[in-house]
Design a protein that fits this description.
This protein has 444 residues and is α+β, with helices and mostly antiparallel strands. The protein is built from eleven helices and 20 strands. Helix 5 packs across helix 6 and helix 6 crosses helix 9. 33% of the residues are buried.
């Protein structure tokens, strides 16, 4: 589970901002939290968190910072290349050109903190810590000296001296030379089989980031293989009054030439496909599966949505469905996953996009309905102010995002404000009490 996330010097985020899933008050409804056992006692951790604010306030920047950090951790960088960081354009001298990404999380009964600081060309700092009865203690720590030399200290609590794990880690730390200063030590250890960091790496893999235009990969293929999943999505689309009464998955074998003519594929893409020995291609909601020796015989897999029109069943393709229905196809897999004892963490940008308020509320309410032992979490951004409802959310779950006059994004939870019992949070927000509302200026 994510406990805290700190980021600085990324796009519209300048000075460090902290987002926390640890409630500020002990007085929080039981269904909103999971209780975890740590070396420092029992901690309550929120299952949901929502970010609200005007357009261009920094909500999507927050999501993009997570996407960048995840990719940087899991994919590494080619030796000698830049880090690819998109830093705050304003001049903040005290940040020294460094961007910070720091995660505190709960994993397999332990609390870890992992973070790194990077510039445009290299990693300056990196650390992995674990919570003990005496507080956080380092497993390894990386620093860059004033002379530009990389120094990494590996502690015995990471692996005992003389052990295979420790020896391999020591060899790897010495191999980070001038051309590898843009690489994370965590990635280097995982890539070379150091088992001690495998669980840490897998935790970052379980972070799922969903942007409005990033469709669920392999949706039709997944539905074709999993009848339970297909029926789950069908049932929810029926219940949500989308007009869809049933979903089917069809496959058809055709010549590759026919695929090219039917979908008007560019010559460049045709050449790329012919150069591949096997693969899966997604074009306009349809998946085309081809393999070595089968380039002329391609299997097309697509979803069909059945509606009842004038008493008869009519089928539609995914691109013919409404934006709202297509958005639900992005989000319903989340609800399916939480019923399967997964521990994924979902970050959803603009969860309310193309959805009625009641549908957004239903999805977020259903997220709490998973099995009690589930450790899933969802963090979302939204423009629909009707979701700012203390009958649906706790104060710790609601965050406000706004920019100051210097163009920096700032984050603040609703729990920072003194709310009286029964007070209308939406009305107070629209009246500007919490900030994070658009300031519309009149014409000169």
């Amino acid at each position: 589970m994510l406990l805290k996330y700190i980021v600085s010097n990324f796009m519209s985020i300048g000075h460090p901002v902290e987002f926390s899933m640890l409630p500020a008050s002990e007085d929080v409804e039981r269904n909103l939290v999971n209780v975890i056992d740590t070396k420092a006692g029992k901690w309550k951790v929120l299952k949901r968190g929502g970010l609200f604010g005007p357009n261009a306030s920094g909500k999507t920047t927050f999501m993009k910072s997570l996407h960048f950090a995840k990719k940087f951790i899991l994919s590494g960088r080619e030796s000698g290349k830049g880090t690819g960081i998109n830093q705050f354009r304003g001049d903040i001298e005290e940040l020294h050109g460094k961007s910070l990404f720091q995660f505190m999380f709960y994993l397999e009964g332990e609390v870890y903190e992992y973070g790194f600081a990077i510039g445009t060309r290299q990693v300056y700092e990196e650390w992995l810590m674990i919570l003990t009865e005496k507080g956080f203690q380092p497993l390894f720590a990386r620093q860059t000296s004033e002379e530009g030399k990389t120094q990494i200290e590996i502690e015995s609590r990471f692996a005992e001296e003389g052990s295979k794990e420790r020896n391999l880690a020591e060899v790897l730390k010495d191999s980070i030379g001038e051309k590898q200063k843009n690489q994370l030590f965590l990635y280097k250890m995982y890539d070379n089989g150091v088992k001690r960091v495998e669980c840490i790496f897998e935790w970052f893999k379980r972070i799922k980031i969903i942007f409005p235009k990033s469709k669920v990969q392999g949706l039709s293929l997944h539905m074709g293989k999993n009848d339970d999943f297909r029926e789950f999505v069908s049932e929810n689309l029926r219940n949500m009054d989308t007009g869809v009464v049933h979903i089917s998955v069809f496959s058809d074998t055709m010549e590759f030439r026919e695929v090219v003519e039917k979908l008007d594929i560019s010559t460049e893409l045709v050449n790329q496909i012919e150069d591949m020995k096997n693969g899966v291609l997604n074009l306009r909601g349809r998946y085309f599966i081809f393999g070595e020796g089968e380039k002329q015989q391609t299997v097309m897999v697509q979803i069909k949505f059945e509606h009842m029109l004038n008493g008869r069943a009519v089928q539609f393709n995914v691109e013919e469905e409404s934006d709202g229905t297509q958005r639900l196809l992005d989000l319903l897999p989340i609800l399916f996953d939480i019923g399967k004892n997964s521990t994924d963490i979902f970050f959803v940008d603009e969860i309310d996009r193309s959805l009625h308020t009641k549908l957004s509320q239903y999805l977020l309410r259903e997220f709490l309905g998973g099995k009690e032992e589930n450790l899933n979490q969802i963090v979302f951004t939204a423009h629909d102010v009707n979701l700012i409802n203390l009958e649906e959310f706790g104060q710790d779950e609601i965050w406000f995002v706004e920019k100051d006059n210097d163009g920096e994004s700032h984050f603040r939870p609703l729990s920072d404000f003194d709310m009286q019992k029964g007070q209308d949070a939406l009305k107070a927000y629209l009246n500007g009490r919490f900030g994070a509302v658009p300031l519309i200026r009149g014409k000169n």
